[in-house]
Each structure stands twice: as structure tokens, then as C-alpha cells.
Design brief:
The complex is a heterodimer of chains A (133) and B (378). In chain A, 26% of the residues lie in helices and 33% in strands. Chain A is α+β, with helices and mostly antiparallel strands and 133 residues long. Chain A has a single domain, classed as OB fold (Dihydrolipoamide Acetyltransferase, E2P) (Beta Barrel). Chain A is globular. With 378 residues, chain B is an alpha+beta fold. In chain B, 20% of the residues lie in helices and 33% in strands. In chain B, helix 2 (35-44) packs across helix 7 (233-242). Classes of the chains: A alpha+beta (133), B alpha+beta (378). Chains A and B meet through strand 4 and strand 6 of A and loops of B.
């Protein structure tokens, strides 16, 4: 099978979400592996701005033609922005999962503790190779 | 993958190029290039599907007609040789045991083609009901390779490797032809809404994989100028749903009658007798309580099988199929609602998780028939 893009500067969850920290804000999306597993993403449902979502709860859903996949919030926080472009162009996730295909931005409530529990890129790559077996 | 899964002659091709899934007890390809691109190539040009997993039985004998008249609700005796028809087996209650196509191969010989998941069930059903008739039933499912070449350029694709003028084969009829050196039966049928052919390569047990592969590659080569793609089960499902065709075990099953499913025009009440007739007459007299409808979403969201349908805040039914339509770029589905809500144009709401998404009962097929499908004008 194909190999997956895993940028070094991000953190990852075992459910294949990624987190990018920019100042005090956390940006969340789904990984190249998740996108390639789902294939042909055609619909995205995003959280409401202002909602506070604890870590581990469903924050968004991403759908391909065949499957619905839930996006679990990897970092507790309050949603401050969602990627509106995805409502009209969900294919941006397929094309650019780490840039144009980001899902939502959070004001984290427990950043330091939450981030430590996520994989580094190296750990996530090891995790992915363990899944292939 | 579990070892007890069945495989077609083309399993090596599926594993090499496809995303593998489990369907009706088979290890099969869900997609190769992607459901959307495979779907669109069939609507716009041509695609080829391995449908070898389907069930096939030969019914032959002096009583073949009498037997089929008994187990099918459509008239059979007026079928001429090489003519085909779509029908279904009914149980005594009028529920559908399966849906199928049948073709009259000669005076006393018919080919019946039915769903992969019902191979055993259907053969048993035929056997059980053949007692007392002079017919021989032969399950040839594992001896025949079956490919479906579908799309507006299907005929052009096959014509480049065939001497028979394919335009002479009418919709739903069949013919014995040669595709280069391969002698095959073709039927002008399919499960996509588009023009196309289903090809049967006879006498090919699973050990003769290479025969199937040679034929597949021959077709892929012939369709190259039209951009042909191998297509998987994913596109097969989205194509049939856009065309408004039922999928057995979802949109129809042992508990749904053809009247409820909107297939009443395929029941010949003038026929003397057939299994399920009494029940259907009763249902026709007492009136239907539910009816199959096609539903198109008018807001964003993807409907799925099992989702509930509402009208004025009350539940009126649920979906039996649902998907994103790659052609219409909107959610579409099929389901059953109370008959009073089945009229085309009725507003309905599909409950998708916590949202009620505005939808409407529409006519099948979902696409513009002047632009797509067998009746297209362009």
C-alpha cells in the first residue's frame, strides 16, 4: 500500500486526528492516513462556534460515499473558528489534509496536559506501521 | 480477510488494483480508482464490472415454461427465444424471495440470474418448487464468468472486438457472439441505468482464472479510447441507486411485496396461477399501507440506510438505501413511507443524527433522463 504524509511539527491521536499549535490556539484536522482510508470525502459536518468540547468527544463528522467517520476532539477547548470552505468544497480535505483541509480551531482549556498525551510524528508513524500488520 | 470468503476468477486483479471489501460472502473490490470517478465514467463513457459473484441457474426441460409460470409473477410463455425479462420469486405471502433476470436461451431452456447473497436460498427455492415438474435445474454460478460493460460507450467498446452488429440486440434481449476468439453470451442489460451489456463466459471453472483475465484485459484495451475504467461494488451501488433500482435485502426482501415496492406493473394478475398471487390480490383489495419512494435531499447531508423520514414532525417511514449522488452532488435515498406520503413532490425530512434535513419525494430515476441513462438523447 501507499505511504502516508506525516508532518513533523504536528501532534497526532490514535483516531487519526492531528493538532497544530499556533500561539495559544490549537488547529485540528484529520491525517493523510484517515483521508486515504476513507477515500473520496464528500461531506463534512463541523462543530458550532462557541461550543466547548471535551477531549475524546465527537467534534465533527467526515463522510465518504460509503462511510461516516467521526472526528474525536483531541484537545479539550472552545471552538473559535471552523473551516467554512469545507461546506462547499469538502474535497479540500482529500487534496490537502494538513493545510486547506483543516477542520476547526480551538481555544484549549487544558493544552499542556492534553498535548502530552498525543503522539509525536515519530510515534504516530510507528503506530501506523503497527496497524498495517 | 477470513478464509471462508468466496472469490471470483478475477480475485488477483481485485487484490492488485482494488480496495478489498466483503460483500455477500465474497472478497471483492469496493473500488479501484475511487467511487466517484468510477461512477462518472459509467454515466459519461464506459466502465467494466466483475459480476461473477451473482448467482446463475439453467432451467431446462419439457415443463420449463410451466414451472417458471408457477414461480414467477410475470408471463413467461409469450417470451420468444433470446428474449429476457426482469422478475422476482415470491413467497406465499407475496414477499420477495429475490429479484432476478431471466433469458430464454432455447425452446425449453432458460437462464436465471440472481443476487450473489441469495445463491443458496434461490436454488433451494427453485428445487423445492420444482417437484412434480419435468425440469432440470443446474446451478452454473461457479462455472460462468460474468462481466458487465456499462455506459453510453459500452456498445462502441464491444463493437471494436466483435463482428456481430451489436445494435441489432434489443434492450433486455440476448445473443451468442464472439469477442475476438471468446464465444460468449451477451445480454443487453445492467444495473446502472445506462445502456450496456452483461457478458457470460461459459464453462469456466475457478481453476481457469486466465480465461477470465484475458477477457477482462481485452475489454479494458478495447475501451481505452473511451477512457474505460474497472469499476467496483461502490460505484455499482451508487449507480443503481441514482437509477432508482432496488437492492435486495435493503429496498426489497421477504417481507415486502412488489405492490409496496412500486413494482406492481411487473405482476401479471391475468396469469392463471403463481406463488403469492392470492396474497397479492388480497393486498390489492385491502389497499397498501406503505409504499417505496425515492427521496432527494434539498439541504446538505448524506442519508443512509435506516435513517428515519418525517413529515410535519411525525415519523412516516425510514430509508432502506442512501448515498451521496456523484452526479447530482446531493444526498439521495430510497425508503418506505405511509402511502399518503408517497406522492411525488411531498415534502419530507430525513433525520441525520440530530438534524432534520429537508427533502422531497421524487420520481425515479434521479437524473435527467434526456441527458443520462438508456433513454438519453445526446
Amino acid at each position: 500500500m501507499s505511504s502516508y504524509i506525516v508532518p513533523e511539527d504536528l501532534r497526532y491521536s490514535k483516531d487519526h486526528e492531528w493538532v497544530r499549535i499556533e500561539g495559544s490556539i490549537a488547529i485540528v484536522g484529520i491525517t493523510d492516513y484517515a483521508v486515504k482510508s476513507l477515500h473520496d470525502i464528500v461531506y463534512v459536518s463541523l462543530p458550532k462556534i462557541g461550543s466547548t468540547i471535551p477531549k475524546g468527544l465527537v467534534a465533527a463528522t467526515v463522510e465518504s460515499i460509503k462511510a461516516v467517520s467521526e472526528v474525536y476532539n483531541p484537545i479539550s477547548g472552545t471552538v473559535i473558528e471552523v473551516n467554512k470552505d469545507l461546506e462547499t468544497s469538502p474535497e479540500k480535505i482529500n487534496e490537502s489534509p494538513y493545510e486547506a483541509g483543516w477542520l476547526f480551531k480551538l481555544n484549549p482549556t487544558n493544552l499542556k496536559e492534553d498535548i502530552e498525551k498525543l503522539f509525536s510524528s515519530k510515534q504516530y508513524l510507528e503506530y501506523l506501521s503497527s496497524l498495517k500488520k | 480477510m477470513a478464509n471462508n470468503l468466496k472469490r471470483t476468477h478475477l480475485i488477483d486483479f481485485h487484490r492488485k488494483y482494488g480496495q478489498i471489501t466483503k460483500f455477500a460472502g465474497f472478497e471483492h473490490a469496493l473500488w479501484y480508482d475511487g467511487i466517484q470517478s468510477e461512477h462518472m465514467v459509467v454515466r459519461e463513457a464506459v466502465g467494466v464490472f466483475d459480476v461473477t459473484h451473482m448467482g446463475r441457474t439453467i432451467v431446462e426441460g419439457d415443463d420449463a415454461i410451466m414451472f417458471l409460470e408457477r414461480i414467477l409473477p410475470r408471463k413467461i410463455s409469450n417470451m420468444v427465444v433470446k428474449q429476457g425479462r426482469y422478475s422476482f420469486f415470491l413467497n406465499e405471502k407475496g414477499g420477495m424471495v429475490d429479484d432476478l433476470t431471466l433469458f430464454r436461451l432455447s425452446e425449453k431452456k432458460f437462464l436465471l440470474v440472481y443476487n450473489a447473497g441469495n445463491r443458496e436460498k434461490d436454488f433451494f427455492w427453485m428445487q423445492k418448487n420444482s417437484i412434480g415438474y419435468d425440469v432440470r435445474l443446474e446451478d452454473v454460478s461457479d462455472q460462468v464468468v460474468m462481466l458487465a460493460v456499462q455506459g453510453p460507450k459500452a456498445i462502441n467498446t464491444l463493437q471494436t472486438i466483435c463482428d456481430t452488429n451489436l445494435t441489432t440486440i434489443k434492450r433486455y434481449w440476448c445473443e451468442w457472439i464472439k469477442l475476438k476468439e471468446h464465444s460468449v453470451l451477451v445480454t443487453r442489460t445492467g444495473y446502472t441505468g445506462e445502456d450496456g451489456f452483461e457478458i457470460y463466459l461459459w464453462d469456466t471453472p475457478l481453476e481457469r482464472k486466465e480465461k477470465a483475465e484475458t477477457l477482462l484485459y481485452l475489454i479494458l484495451k478495447a475501451g481505452e479510447p473511451y477512457g474505460i475504467k474497472p469499476c467496483g461494488l461502490g460505484a455499482r451501488d451508487t449507480l443503481r441507486l441514482e437509477a432508482g433500482m432496488c437492492l435486495y435485502d435493503h429496498d426489497i426482501d421477504d417481507t415486502t411485496t412488489p405492490l409496496e415496492a412500486g413494482l406492481g406493473m411487473l405482476v401479471d394478475f391475468d396469469k392463471q396461477d403463481f406463488i403469492g398471487k392470492e396474497s397479492l390480490i388480497k393486498q390489492r383489495e385491502s389497499g397498501l399501507t406503505r409504499s417505496r419512494v425515492c427521496i432527494r435531499l434539498e439541504e446538505k447531508g448524506i442519508p443512509r440506510s435506516g435513517f428515519e423520514i418525517y413529515h410535519n414532525n411525525s415519523k412516516i417511514g425510514s430509508l432502506t438505501s442512501g448515498t451521496y449522488s456523484p452526479l447530482l452532488k446531493t444526498g439521495i435515498g430510497m425508503g418506505y413511507v405511509g402511502v399518503e406520503y408517497a406522492a411525488v413532490g411531498t415534502e419530507a425530512y430525513v433525520k441525520i443524527r440530530d438534524n432534520f434535513v429537508r427533502s422531497r419525494v421524487v420520481e425515479a430515476p434521479f437524473y435527467d433522463t434526456s441527458k443520462y441513462g438508456v433513454k438519453r438523447k445526446t
